[in-house]
C-alpha cells in the first residue's frame, strides 16, 4: 500500500524551494529594480567624468550574499522540526538543504552574471559609448556561485548553532563565522579586500586554485553543519 | 505490516534532570495503546525518543528490531503528533498539509480533506492565527491522514471542546478498524478514552509503573465497603491503594485479583465488593507519595 | 445529552461481560432469533466506542458458552438452542439468586414466609399493586 515516492532528499529540497521561491523572486525583483532605477537616474556625463570602468553592478554582489546568509540562518530554526516531525531523517534534511542552497546560489549567480551584459547594454543605450569593461562571464558566474554557497553555508552554521546549543554558543559561532567570511572575501576578491577598515591582500593565485579554496571553505562549513544536525533533538519552539 | 516496538532500559536526561529512567517494555503492535501518566511523568520525553525526535540518554529504542534514530525506513513509519505537529508557525494550514502529504508514504489525501472539513479548518489560515483547539485539530488531521503504521498522539486533544474530542476518539477508533495499525495515545483524561485502549501503560515519575491489558487492569481494582473494623480485618494481606471513611463505614480500594475464597469471605462478612474505574485506579496508583506497586 | 457509552456501561463488571449479557438478554427476549447473525465486533466497537478487542472478548465468552457460533468469513450467529439454554440457566439461577435472597431479606426484616406466599397469591389473581 506504500505508494512510490521521491527520495527524501528531493522531498526536502522541493519543499524548501516551494517555500522560499517567492522570497527569492521578490528579492531579485526589488534588487534589479533599484539598480535599473540608479542606471536611469545616473547622468552619463558624470559617470564619464568619474571614469567608472566596472559599472555599479560589480559592487552589488554583497547584497545577495547577505540575503543568502540570512536565509541560511533561518533555515534550521524554521524548517528542521517540520521535516523531522514528518518522518524525515536529519541526514536527509541536511542533504535536501544542501541541494536547496545550491539551487538558490545558482539562480542568484546566474542573475548576477547576466547583469553585466545587461548593464553594459543599458549604459550604451543611454550614453552610446563603451565605457564598461567586459568581465569573463563564466569566471564571474563560478565565483558568484561559490561565494553565495559559502555565505549560505556560514549563515546556516550560525542558525544551526543557535538551534543545537544555547544562545551563548550561538553568539560565539556568529563571531567565529567571520573567519570563513574573511577567507572567502580574501580569496575571491581580486586585489585588496576591506573589512572593518583593515585591508587584506592575498598573493595572486590562479583562478582555479582560488575557486577550489572557496569551495573547500563551503564544504568544510557544510560538514560542520551536518555534524551539528546529526543527533540534534527536535525543539518545540525556538523563535 | 505490524511493527513491534521494543524499548530497552531507556532513560532521558536533560542535564541533571531525569525525565525518564530505565524504562523497558515491548508492544507487539496493531493495537490501541494508552500511555497514562500525570503531568511531568515523562510521557512526552518517552514518546519523543520513540519517534526519534531525540536520542535516548541511555538504552535503546527498537522498532521492527532496528535502532530507530536516524533510520529513514523506520522514521517514515512513525508519526508523532503534539498539538499542530511541530509545523512551523509561519506555515498556512495548506503548507502544513502539503508538507505532510509529500513526506508520509501512506498519506491519504481524501481522508485529509474529509478531516479538514470535519474540523472546519480553513486552508488559508496561518498556523500562528489558529486557536489552540484548531491547532490540535490540524495535528489530528495530519496524524490520522498520515496512516503511519505507528501513530502517536501526545495529548492531541488540548484546547478541543468535548464534542470535538469525542469526534477525535471516534475517528481514531473507526480508522483503526478500517486500517489496523498501532496507535499510542497519551492522556490523563482516562474516563473519556479508557474504553478505546486495548493495553495500558502507566508512567510515574519517569518510571514504568505497569503495562497491562486494560480489561485485566480494570479487574485488578476492587473496592471493599462495609463496617470499618470488618473491612480493616478483611484487607490484611491485600495491597491497599486508598481508603475513605464515612461514619463507621469504610471503603478501601485494593489492587490485585481476589481469590474465590476471598470473594466468598466478603459475602459472609457482609462486605460489599465493587469495581474501580480505570481513572480512579490510575489516580490511586500514581498518587503523590504513594508507594505504587 | 450524555455521550454514548457512558450510559450504556456501568463500571460494575467488565465491559465485555456486559456486552455478552446484553446479547444474552436480546436472545432471551427474542430480539435476536436463532440462526440470526449478530453485529460484528467492529460494529459493536464503533457503536459503543470501545476497543474491538474488548467486544471480541465478549463474543468469545458467548462462543465458549455455546450461545453463538462462528461462520468463517461471514460472522457470528445465534446458536439453534441458545434461547433454550439461556432460559434454562436463568431458571436455575432464579431460586438461588432471587428466591433465596428474598427469603433471607424477609427473615432479616421480620416478614413471615406466609405473608410472602399470600402476596404472591394475590399477584397471581391479578389483584396486585
Automatic annotation (TrEMBL), chain A:
<keyword id="KW-0812">Transmembrane</keyword>
<feature type="transmembrane region" description="Helical">
    <location>
        <begin position="170"/>
        <end position="187"/>
    </location>
</feature>
<feature type="transmembrane region" description="Helical">
    <location>
        <begin position="207"/>
        <end position="228"/>
    </location>
</feature>
<feature type="transmembrane region" description="Helical">
    <location>
        <begin position="93"/>
        <end position="116"/>
    </location>
</feature>
<protein>
    <submittedName>
        <fullName>Uncharacterized protein</fullName>
    </submittedName>
</protein>
<feature type="transmembrane region" description="Helical">
    <location>
        <begin position="66"/>
        <end position="86"/>
    </location>
</feature>
<feature type="transmembrane region" description="Helical">
    <location>
        <begin position="24"/>
        <end position="46"/>
    </location>
</feature>
<keyword id="KW-0472">Membrane</keyword>
<feature type="transmembrane region" description="Helical">
    <location>
        <begin position="136"/>
        <end position="158"/>
    </location>
</feature>
<keyword id="KW-1133">Transmembrane helix</keyword>
Automatic annotation (TrEMBL), chain B:
<feature type="domain" description="ABC transporter">
    <location>
        <begin position="5"/>
        <end position="230"/>
    </location>
</feature>
<dbReference type="InterPro" id="IPR027417">
    <property type="entry name" value="P-loop_NTPase"/>
</dbReference>
<keyword id="KW-0547">Nucleotide-binding</keyword>
<dbReference type="InterPro" id="IPR003593">
    <property type="entry name" value="AAA+_ATPase"/>
</dbReference>
<dbReference type="Pfam" id="PF00005">
    <property type="entry name" value="ABC_tran"/>
</dbReference>
<dbReference type="InterPro" id="IPR003439">
    <property type="entry name" value="ABC_transporter-like_ATP-bd"/>
</dbReference>
<dbReference type="GO" id="GO:0016887">
    <property type="term" value="F:ATP hydrolysis activity"/>
</dbReference>
<keyword id="KW-0067">ATP-binding</keyword>
<dbReference type="GO" id="GO:0005524">
    <property type="term" value="F:ATP binding"/>
</dbReference>
<protein>
    <submittedName>
        <fullName>ABC transporter ATP-binding protein</fullName>
    </submittedName>
</protein>
Amino acid at each position: 500500500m506504500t505508494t512510490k515516492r521521491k527520495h527524501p532528499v528531493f522531498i526536502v529540497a522541493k519543499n524548501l524551494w516551494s517555500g522560499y521561491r517567492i522570497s527569492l523572486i521578490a528579492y531579485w525583483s526589488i534588487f534589479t529594480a533599484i539598480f535599473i532605477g540608479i542606471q536611469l537616474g545616473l547622468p552619463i556625463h558624470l559617470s564619464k567624468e568619474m571614469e567608472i570602468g566596472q559599472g555599479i553592478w560589480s559592487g552589488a554582489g554583497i547584497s545577495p550574499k547577505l540575503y543568502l546568509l540570512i536565509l541560511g540562518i533561518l533555515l534550521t530554526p524554521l524548517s528542521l522540526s517540520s521535516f523531522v516531525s514528518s518522518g524525515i531523517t536529519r541526514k536527509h534534511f541536511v542533504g535536501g538543504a544542501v541541494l536547496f542552497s545550491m539551487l538558490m546560489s545558482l539562480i542568484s549567480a546566474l542573475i548576477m552574471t547576466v547583469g553585466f551584459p545587461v548593464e553594459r547594454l543599458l549604459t550604451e543605450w543611454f550614453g552610446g559609448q563603451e565605457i564598461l569593461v567586459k568581465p569573463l562571464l563564466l569566471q564571474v558566474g563560478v565565483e558568484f556561485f561559490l561565494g553565495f554557497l559559502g555565505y549560505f553555508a556560514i549563515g546556516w552554521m550560525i542558525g544551526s548553532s543557535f538551534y543545537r546549543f544555547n544562545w551563548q554558543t550561538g553568539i560565539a559561532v556568529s563571531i567565529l563565522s567571520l573567519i570563513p567570511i574573511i577567507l572567502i572575501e580574501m580569496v575571491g576578491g581580486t586585489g585588496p579586500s576591506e573589512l572593518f577598515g583593515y585591508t587584506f591582500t592575498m598573493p595572486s593565485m590562479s583562478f582555479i586554485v582560488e575557486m577550489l579554496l572557496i569551495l573547500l571553505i563551503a564544504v568544510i562549513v557544510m560538514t560542520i553543519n551536518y555534524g551539528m544536525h546529526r543527533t540534534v533533538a527536535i525543539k518545540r519552539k525556538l523563535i | 505490516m505490524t511493527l513491534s516496538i521494543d524499548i530497552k532500559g531507556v532513560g532521558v536526561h536533560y542535564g541533571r534532570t531525569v525525565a525518564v529512567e530505565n524504562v523497558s517494555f515491548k508492544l507487539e503492535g496493531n493495537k490501541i495503546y494508552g500511555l497514562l501518566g500525570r503531568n511531568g511523568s515523562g510521557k512526552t520525553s518517552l514518546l519523543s525518543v520513540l519517534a526519534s525526535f531525540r536520542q535516548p540518554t541511555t538504552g535503546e529504542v527498537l522498532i521492527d528490531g532496528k535502532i530507530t534514530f536516524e533510520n529513514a525506513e523506520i522514521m517514515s513509519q512513525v508519526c508523532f503528533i503534539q498539538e499542530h505537529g511541530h509545523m512551523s508557525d509561519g506555515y498556512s494550514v495548506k503548507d502544513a498539509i502539503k508538507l505532510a502529504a509529500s513526506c508520509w508514504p501512506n498519506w491519504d489525501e481524501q481522508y485529509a480533506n474529509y478531516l479538514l472539513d470535519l474540523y472546519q479548518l480553513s486552508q488559508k489560515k496561518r498556523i500562528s492565527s489558529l486557536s489552540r483547539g484548531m491547532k490540535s485539530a490540524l495535528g489530528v488531521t495530519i496524524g490520522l491522514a498520515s496512516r503511519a503504521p505507528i501513530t502517536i498522539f501526545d495529548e492531541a486533544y488540548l484546547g478541543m471542546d468535548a464534542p470535538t474530542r469525542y469526534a477525535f476518539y471516534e475517528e481514531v477508533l473507526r480508522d483503526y478498524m478500517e486500517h489496523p495499525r498501532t496507535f499510542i495515545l497519551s492522556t490523563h483524561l482516562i474516563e473519556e478514552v479508557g474504553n478505546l485502549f486495548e493495553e495500558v501503560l502507566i508512567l510515574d515519575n519517569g518510571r514504568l509503573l505497569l503495562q497491562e491489558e486494560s480489561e485485566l487492569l480494570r479487574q485488578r481494582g476492587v473496592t471493599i465497603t462495609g463496617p470499618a473494623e470488618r473491612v480493616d480485618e478483611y484487607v490484611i494481606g491485600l495491597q491497599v491503594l486508598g481508603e475513605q471513611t464515612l461514619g463507621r463505614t469504610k471503603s478501601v480500594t485494593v489492587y490485585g485479583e481476589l481469590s474465590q475464597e476471598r470473594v466468598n469471605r466478603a459475602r459472609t462478612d457482609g462486605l460489599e465488593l465493587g469495581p474501580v474505574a480505570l481513572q480512579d485506579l490510575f489516580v490511586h496508583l500514581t498518587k503523590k507519595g504513594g508507594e505504587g506497586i | 445529552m450524555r455521550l454514548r457509552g457512558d450510559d450504556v456501561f456501568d463500571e460494575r463488571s467488565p465491559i465485555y461481560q456486559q456486552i455478552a449479557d446484553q446479547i444474552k438478554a436480546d436472545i432471551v427476549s427474542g430480539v435476536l432469533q436463532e440462526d440470526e447473525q449478530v453485529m460484528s465486533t467492529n460494529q459493536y466497537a464503533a457503536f459503543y466506542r470501545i476497543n474491538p478487542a474488548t467486544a471480541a472478548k465478549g463474543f468469545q465468552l458467548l462462543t465458549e458458552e455455546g450461545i453463538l457460533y462462528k461462520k468463517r468469513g461471514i460472522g457470528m450467529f445465534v446458536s439453534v438452542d441458545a434461547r433454550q439454554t439461556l432460559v434454562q440457566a436463568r431458571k436455575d439461577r432464579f431460586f438461588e439468586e432471587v428466591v433465596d435472597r428474598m427469603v433471607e431479606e424477609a427473615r432479616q426484616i421480620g416478614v413471615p414466609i406466609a405473608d410472602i406466599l399470600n402476596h404472591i397469591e394475590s399477584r397471581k389473581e391479578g389483584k396486585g399493586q
